Amino acid sequence: MIYLDKNIIGGKKVFAKMEKYNKYILILIAVIVIGMSIGYSALNSDLKISGEVNYRPQEDVRVTNFTANSKPDNVTIEYSDYSKNQVKLGYTNTLEQATSITYTVEITNYSTVNMGILEIYDTDENVEVQENMIGTKLVGSGGIKEFTITFNSTQAETKTYLLTFEFVPIYTVTYNGLGNTDDYVQEVLEGGQLKQNLGKDSEVCSVTMDGRNYTDYTFSNETIIIDNVLEDIVINGYAPTVEEPTTPNPPELNGDMVPVYYYKINDKNGEWRKADENNLNNSWYNYANQEWANAVTIIADRREEVKKYEVNTPIDMDYINTMWVWIPRYSYTIKSENGGTNYYGKKTSCTMPTQKLPGEVDVKFISKEDERETGSARYIGDEVSGWYTNEAFDFPETDEEVNTPTKRGGIWVSKFEPTGTVSSCTNTSCDVSSVTVKPGIASIRSKKVSNFYFMSRSMQENNASTYGFDENNGDLHMMKNDEWGAVAYLSQSRYGKYGNSEYTGANKEVYINNDSNYITGHSGGSPSASSSAISYVYNDMTNLESGKGQAGPGASTTGNITGIYDMSGGAYEYVMGVLEYDAQEEDEHSGQIVAGSSGFRGLNSSGSSTTGSYDLPNEKYYNKYKSANPTSSTWSSAKPESACNGGVCYGHALSETSSWYGDYATFVIRSYPWFLRGGSYSDAAGAGVFHVYDNSGISYSDVSCRLAFAP
Question: Would residue 382 count as lying in a domain?
Answer without folding.
Answer: no
